[in-house]
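ingest -> validate -> predict -> emit
validate: passed (alphabet ok, no gaps, 176 aa)
predict: started
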Amino acid sequence: MTAHETAPTAPAGSLAEATRLPVERQLQHLTDRADITDLLDRCLRSLDEGVFDEAWGRAFYTEDATAEMPIGTVRGRDAVVARIREGMALFDRTVHLGGSPVVEIDGDRATARAGQLSTHVLADGSEALFVSGGHAETELLRTPDGWRIAASALRVVWTRGTPPRLPAGMGPATAA
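emit:
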């Protein structure tokens, strides 16, 4: 590097930035990243298990969480759980896969962005497939119970197959 060149700087909250911290803070940063990644993985996997009750909502979302989905934007943990339950009822079986998230941590707040591939078998008896690909943008908060999702947005980039027929009141323009 010449005298006129400067070293590139790491993004705030990134793993590269964390390596310049004291060892204890590095360990906390790595633990937080692991906890956040685990939470996101468990949440995505749980969509395929089909249990969307109050305990499920508390395990993943803050009380005032918001969720922006192709089937509408909702506010409040109870509304998020209800909308996910309604949306997942459109499918007989699903498989949701998430890519490695890019996680940035700032104290008790964090953001994550990861790819998502979702395969669905429609519940209308047709056995038709609906596949979507895109990414999930997530804001997280550290709570007394651990990291929880405060806001999420699923950005679908492409789809293939037969989309489900949405019931009245369910869609992008709806909010609960």
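The longest helix spans residues 23-46.
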